[in-house]
Amino acid sequence: MRKFILAGLVLGSVFASGNLFAARKFALIVGTNYKGSEISPLGLCEKDAEVMKKSIAQTGNFEQQNIRVLLANQVTRENLRSAIVDWLGKQVKDGDQVFFFFAGHGQFMRDPAAKNGMRNFIIMFQRPHVSDDELSEWFGKLKTKKAVIILDCCFSGGIAKKGAATRGAGNVPIPDGQDYAVLQDLEGVHFQNKVVISSSDDNETAIELGKPIEHGIFTYYFSKAILDADLNGDKSITAYEAFFKARNETTKMAQKANHKQVPQISGDASGFFFVAAAVAPPPPAPVLPPVPVVVPEPEVAPPITPEEPQNPTNKKTGTLVIKTTYTKAQLAGGIQVFIDNEEYDFNLQYVDYGAWGKTAQITVSKVPSGVHNVTIKAGGYSDQVVKTGIEPNQTTTETITCGLAGKGAIAGKVYLETFDQGAEGFIVFIKPLPNFKQPTSTSRKDGSFAFTEVKPGKYTVFLRGSARAVIKQYDQEITVEADKITNLDIVLKRLVAKK
Questions:
Q1: What is the mean predicted confidence (pLDDT) over 345-363?
Q2: CA distance 215 to 420
Q3: Between these two residues, 273 and 489, which has the higher pLDDT value?
Q4: How does pLDDT run across 152-169, given as a tens digit for each residue?
Q5: Could you tell me which residue, 142 or 343, shows the higher pLDDT?
Q6: In the chain, how many H helices and how many E strands?
Q7: Sheet strands (E) in 407-497
Q8: 64-73, 134-143, 385-394: least confident range
Q9: What are the C-alpha distances in Å from 380 to residues 328, 405, 409, 416?
């Protein structure tokens, strides 16, 4: 994933050679509430582990002896290492499928050797905890590339909310002697060549809720989606279908709890089925009597194919809304929208989009339900491609952020200690000046800021205090690339009130 994941699902390469239906499936399910530990307790992680175990067993045809569960005080570094390296490492063969689930706390910890000076950890019941590097190394020892890893936790501090608990432990660590840290393009765990689905964005916290859900909200909706997210009506459920349905439900429920949590996906998960329609067997080869003809049973195991399936008989549709960073002043021509290579008509509005100002919002009606590739061609901007999942009779919203063709852009937020609280009124400077139109950007109510039309190159970023507080300046070098957004998270350690 392009950023630090807070919680994620990883799908290994699904295009292995060999018999697609002979692969064995293994599951390792891990969850702890930290009751009786020095770690701040959570209430529903062990329950999450149980519901995910139940759902994956229903869809994946896992044999009982190939499922292991670690709960409560069993969740230690050595038990986890042994389960992955010793048990899975010895049992799993090339082409087998591995499913791993962890529900618990995640946290940033200071590490001068890591990018941005911080590393992310999943928190065990007791010390020592497990870093992203270690987890990646352990899974790298398995003989199969087909691994599904779900981490329902977050890697930042959380704040208490009524009826909700955040799955983070502690504030974002700031180096000694600094009042803030500038974090560029937070990275995910280092599972190379994998698909990552995270339960929240890199600067968000994952939450769990009491009634009526009584689960971590992403786990709750994802565990349901892998059983019922047949968006295009073909009686199959793919990883993309499950993700998009769970993402939409998670986002809506988080908003009801006055929280922002938007699951993310990166990489190509096409062709992975959680549930598959029965495949008609080929006709038997002709034989001479009296040899009886044996008709094989229909194959119902989840197949693996290189493409996301389409259903040409599907008549159900939904609406697609695309928020962009295209401004009327910068557009050098018209806009075209293609869905699976077919051009669609759309409605265009210019609406307020945070620190970007008034930008183009595209609405496409009567889009067939299912998973699609959407291409946006806009004059003056490089072509943008986004994958989306349309639910029948529902509205799906996607976001495209990009700078002008040949130039870059900077987008970010200023926070107070954790990723849950934006800081308004702080002035962000970059030098040398990226252009003469915008030498500074002031953080808005939600902490957001943006710079557009930035020439590719290296810059220095620093922050100055708001009208109510003063901070010590700290310079941080960043890199801006052409046709890309440089994402910055500026986290304040403390504020000193002005007299």
A1: 94
A2: 20
A3: 489
A4: 886 532 222 334 566 665
A5: 343
A6: 6, 33
A7: 408-416, 427-431, 440-442, 448-454, 457-464, 469-470, 476-480, 485-492, 496-497
A8: 134-143
A9: 11, 6, 14, 36
Rounded Cα distance, 205 and 414, in Å = 16
Is pLDDT above 60 for 333?
Answer: yes
CA–CA distance, 296 with 190 (Å, rounded to integer)? 43
- Residue 209 · residue 253 · CB < 8 Å: yes
Helix (H) or strand (E) holding 48: helix 45-60
In the block, residue with structure tokens 């067939």 = 368
Can you give the pLDDT at residue 7?
Answer: 41
Q: How far apart are CA 111 and CA 180, in angstroms?
A: 16
CA distance 261 to 250: 7
Taking alpha carbons only, the member of 244, 191, 254 closest to residue 222 is 244
What pLDDT score was predicted for residue 151? 82
Q: Which two tokens stand for residue 26?
A: 């293994």
pTM: 0.80
* Domain architecture of the chain: domains with CATH: 7-275 (3.40.50.1460), 317-400 (2.60.40.4130), 408-497 (2.60.40.10)
Instruction: Fill in the DSSP letter of residue 345.
Output: -
* Distances 89 to 26, 83, 295, 375 between C-alpha atoms, Å: 11, 8, 38, 41
